[in-house]
What does this fold into?
Amino acid sequence: MNNQDIKVRCYSFSLRVLKFISANDVDRKFKPIIDQLLRSSTSIGANVIEAKSSSSKREFIKYYEIALKSANETKYWICLFRDGIKSSSEIKALLNEADEISKIIAASIIKLKKK
It folds into this structure.
């Protein structure tokens, strides 16, 4: 997967999370979880974009590592939402996509470090 594809995929994922959150009326006591899910899910794509403007390979890898950490955090919040608030087919799909994005970013980091 090239850099453009992962950017588009991350952007689409962020939109799906936004739409999911907007479509689900969640009790206010769960607002901190929703806020964290929103922050971490949008951070993935933001860091992939930031990597594009890096001035060095090392800096590029650093932003991809941050994106990977955000993707892993996103999986945590999705699981917490699924297990503690509401499970649905969309939550399962979001978790699957976050996992796929994590794998792609991790593979990219490994490949870049070998070069």
Summary: The mean pLDDT is 93.
